[in-house]
């Protein structure tokens, strides 16, 4: 229990309440690091794990008497259910072969951040065969890697006509605990250190949390804050240098070191007062493949001295006072938006809940570690709070079944805002540190 700093006006001391904390990130920790295998076993392990969940959903949706067959056993125009993995055929999908052809002045690839178009189509494949899908399934709302069960029949042209479909069964979250008092968790992302624009707003936020600024009402509110979750991109993206090779992806050493020193200085002020979980992001000095491993404590010589400072994985999974939080630094959501027509981050979060997978598009277009016998991104149970970091704007709403609170955390560097969440009620309170100067 850490006392909040004294209000100099009313000389009133507040003390933070205690909270329970369980880290559920063990499945994202990579112990046996090897890159000798291909990604085919990864997809096989995903489908094998999801098949049981899909079978359960099939029986629930279409009844236990429905016929489930493998693709190689489907004959004629019989109506059957087939379970497999979706592959989305996209002409604009980036390809190293197409990049090489550009260098030889052949067909150039258009420069774009969205790779979907109207003539994209879906293919369903299992461990032996594949078939083109048509009918009542929209390619624009699906991405590669989704495990799915489709109900339909084979047409004369060899395509499988989809009458209906369903995704994996996922258990609902546990009953929300009954807390006797309000406790808060602060969700924030995208400090972008290395840019001067974020220095003052970040210091102001820390002063608000530690009670250095604000009135007595603000002091009391922030005294109920039990944990801060930083969802990636604490270090800013380096501006491109036209004189550097386009194949050089590493940051300059001096810029990264200076930014990390600033981050450690800020975190050391914060962890004196409240517990902090810091996730790596796309631009942070961590491994690029998902799941990103925790930032090394040696990068934080000041902050790591405190037990309230925690380096965690991306994705993040933890239970705070009985409320389970699951989320990412945003790479999965941005990638889904680039390869589909799902542009709203909250809609992308809803889709991943429906699909039963945090990042189905990995490893096709989102770099991921080549697992062999498991897929840690599969959802077996929904969390209470599901978030993504580094969104362009703040957003929050409950999922379609009203059981999961979905939160899009904005980029702090651009919005100077964060999200305050009440653990007792799951009520969201936007925190705006200062106005954005355009």
From TrEMBL:
Subcellular compartments: Nucleus
- One annotated GO molecular function: DNA binding
Q: Which Pfam families match?
A: DNA_pol_D_N, DNA_pol_E_B
Presence of the UniProt keyword Zinc in the record: no
Chief location of this protein within or outside the cell? nucleus
Q: Where is the DNA polymerase alpha/delta/epsilon subunit B domain?
A: 185-391
- GO CC field: delta DNA polymerase complex
Keywords on record: DNA replication, Nucleus
Which species does the entry assign this protein to?
A: Larinioides sclopetarius
Q: Which residues form the DNA polymerase delta subunit OB-fold domain?
A: 38-165
GO biological process entries = DNA strand elongation involved in DNA replication
Keyword Phosphoprotein present in the record's keywords: the answer is no
Q: What is this protein called?
A: DNA polymerase delta subunit 2
The record's similarity note reads: Belongs to the DNA polymerase delta/II small subunit family.
